[in-house]
């Protein structure tokens, strides 16, 4: 599961990537600095892991991770191949969620490809290219399906109707995620197409240092504009945070953040947002050797969660012993939770809850 960073050239995508990941991407003040995508594995900050660490005192702690991809900037005409557009759009198609970076700072020294700062116009430019790319895929499919529908194939006729709705919506400038369709239509026909504008999106407003805490007028404009998109908007002083990341010690970084008026880096909020956007959640294992966060899809059952550790755990699953995170913290240890009768034994049907502390019983 990975989230891709998209936006116009030179808006701060690679700088953002560098705030998040230890893999250093080249960032510089000219458009199309990035050509090949940069891929980074990013730890998901989670204070629950720190609390469990305090209680269990393990040899090591392993956080959950999420993959972030820094993609080349898109320009107007990308869907027609402008600025290596097709290649870049291909990179975006391979991701599961989109972090859309919008330039929300004034600075005459940083070039804007369209000559002025206007995040709403920029957003529309990017959306339009992504929609045009999807339209191309939909039209191709529609051609095929129409032929099958003519022969009287009922399934093809249903699909034709859905594809026609997609085509009309995209032509009117609506992203696939916002086109009105039933759940069944989405699951059966739309999801398998992996369209770019069907992926969940979060808007990341790149602001300057002065707006790090409160945001600014650009951010407000963005929030207003996307209010009915059911998408999250966050703002982040990307340039400043990249400078903070460069500092050697935790104390230095913390001091810099406090000076700015922040209790944690905005990048932490962003990573947690990306994790949610990907529809992921966490369960824990907590032993003296290792306290660890494991990543599952929302709605995963106990055997599926066990399968994340090892496929044998899933195949030979017998039962799970589960402690709610809050119980673990309240009673302070596994033994005390057991004493209090708060440990549950769950079977194959159990849907894991975010924060569960689990043990699996299995045979191989
Ligand atoms: N909030 C900010 N304030 C001022 N300058 C910034 C800010 N964010 C990024 N920059 C600067 O903008 C320039 C472009 O940044 P970056 O290389 O990250 O852009 P990009 O979106 O990755 O571009 P490309 O699409 O060309 O790869 C860099 O010089 C960076 O330092
Ligand atoms: Mg870049």
Automatic annotation (TrEMBL):
<dbReference type="Pfam" id="PF06071">
    <property type="entry name" value="YchF-GTPase_C"/>
</dbReference>
<dbReference type="InterPro" id="IPR004095">
    <property type="entry name" value="TGS"/>
</dbReference>
<dbReference type="GO" id="GO:0005525">
    <property type="term" value="F:GTP binding"/>
</dbReference>
<dbReference type="GO" id="GO:0005524">
    <property type="term" value="F:ATP binding"/>
</dbReference>
<keyword id="KW-0460">Magnesium</keyword>
<dbReference type="Pfam" id="PF01926">
    <property type="entry name" value="MMR_HSR1"/>
</dbReference>
<feature type="domain" description="TGS">
    <location>
        <begin position="279"/>
        <end position="362"/>
    </location>
</feature>
<dbReference type="InterPro" id="IPR012675">
    <property type="entry name" value="Beta-grasp_dom_sf"/>
</dbReference>
<dbReference type="InterPro" id="IPR027417">
    <property type="entry name" value="P-loop_NTPase"/>
</dbReference>
<dbReference type="GO" id="GO:0043023">
    <property type="term" value="F:ribosomal large subunit binding"/>
</dbReference>
<protein>
    <recommendedName>
        <fullName>Ribosome-binding ATPase YchF</fullName>
    </recommendedName>
</protein>
<dbReference type="InterPro" id="IPR023192">
    <property type="entry name" value="TGS-like_dom_sf"/>
</dbReference>
<dbReference type="InterPro" id="IPR012676">
    <property type="entry name" value="TGS-like"/>
</dbReference>
<dbReference type="InterPro" id="IPR013029">
    <property type="entry name" value="YchF_C"/>
</dbReference>
<comment type="function">
    <text>ATPase that binds to both the 70S ribosome and the 50S ribosomal subunit in a nucleotide-independent manner.</text>
</comment>
<dbReference type="GO" id="GO:0016887">
    <property type="term" value="F:ATP hydrolysis activity"/>
</dbReference>
<keyword id="KW-0547">Nucleotide-binding</keyword>
<dbReference type="InterPro" id="IPR031167">
    <property type="entry name" value="G_OBG"/>
</dbReference>
<feature type="domain" description="OBG-type G">
    <location>
        <begin position="1"/>
        <end position="256"/>
    </location>
</feature>
<dbReference type="InterPro" id="IPR004396">
    <property type="entry name" value="ATPase_YchF/OLA1"/>
</dbReference>
<comment type="similarity">
    <text>Belongs to the TRAFAC class OBG-HflX-like GTPase superfamily. OBG GTPase family. YchF/OLA1 subfamily.</text>
</comment>
<keyword id="KW-0175">Coiled coil</keyword>
<dbReference type="InterPro" id="IPR041706">
    <property type="entry name" value="YchF_N"/>
</dbReference>
<dbReference type="GO" id="GO:0005737">
    <property type="term" value="C:cytoplasm"/>
</dbReference>
<keyword id="KW-0479">Metal-binding</keyword>
<feature type="coiled-coil region">
    <location>
        <begin position="128"/>
        <end position="155"/>
    </location>
</feature>
<keyword id="KW-0067">ATP-binding</keyword>
<dbReference type="InterPro" id="IPR006073">
    <property type="entry name" value="GTP-bd"/>
</dbReference>
<feature type="binding site">
    <location>
        <begin position="10"/>
        <end position="15"/>
    </location>
    <ligand>
        <name>ATP</name>
    </ligand>
</feature>
<dbReference type="GO" id="GO:0046872">
    <property type="term" value="F:metal ion binding"/>
</dbReference>
């Amino acid at each position: 599961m990975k989230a891709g960073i998209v936006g116009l050239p030179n808006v701060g995508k690679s700088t953002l990537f560098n705030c998040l990941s230890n893999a250093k991407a080249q960032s510089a003040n000219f458009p199309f600095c990035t050509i090949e995508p940069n891929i980074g594995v990013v730890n998901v900050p989670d204070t629950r892991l720190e609390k469990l660490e305090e209680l269990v005192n393990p040899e090591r702690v392993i956080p959950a991770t999420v993959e972030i991809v820094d993609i080349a900037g898109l320009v107007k005409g990308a869907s027609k191949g402008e600025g290596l557009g097709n290649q870049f759009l291909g990179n975006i198609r391979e991701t599961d969620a989109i972090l859309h970076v919008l330039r929300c700072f004034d600075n005459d020294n940083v070039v804007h490809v369209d000559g002025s700062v206007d995040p709403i116009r920029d957003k529309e430019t990017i959306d339009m290219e992504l929609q045009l790319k999807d339209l191309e895929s939909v039209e191709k499919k529609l051609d095929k399906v129409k032929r099958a529908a003519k022969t009287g194939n009922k399934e093809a006729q249903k699909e034709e109707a859905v594809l026609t709705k997609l085509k009309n919506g995209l032509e009117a400038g609506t992203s696939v995620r916002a086109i009105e369709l039933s759940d069944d239509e989405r699951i059966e026909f739309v999801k398998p197409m992996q369209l770019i504008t069907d992926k969940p999106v979060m808007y990341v407003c790149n602001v300057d240092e002065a707006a790090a805490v409160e945001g600014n007028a650009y951010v407000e404009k963005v929030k207003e504009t996307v209010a009915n998109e059911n998408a999250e908007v966050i703002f982040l002083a990307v340039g400043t945070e990249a400078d903070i990341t460069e500092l050697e010690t935790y104390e230095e970084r913390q001091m810099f953040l406090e000076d700015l008026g922040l209790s944690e880096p905005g990048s932490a909020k962003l990573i947690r947002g990306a994790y949610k956007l990907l529809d992921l959640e966490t369960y824990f294992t907590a032993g003296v050797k290792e306290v660890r966060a494991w990543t599952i899809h929302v709605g995963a059952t106990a055997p599926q969660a066990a399968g994340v550790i090892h496929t044998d755990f899933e195949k030979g699953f017998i039962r799970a012993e589960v402690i709610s995170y809050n119980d673990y913290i309240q009673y302070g240890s596994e033994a005390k939770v057991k004493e209090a009768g708060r440990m549950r034994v769950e079977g194959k049907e159990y849907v894991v809850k975010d924060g569960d502390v689990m043990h699996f019983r299995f045979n191989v």
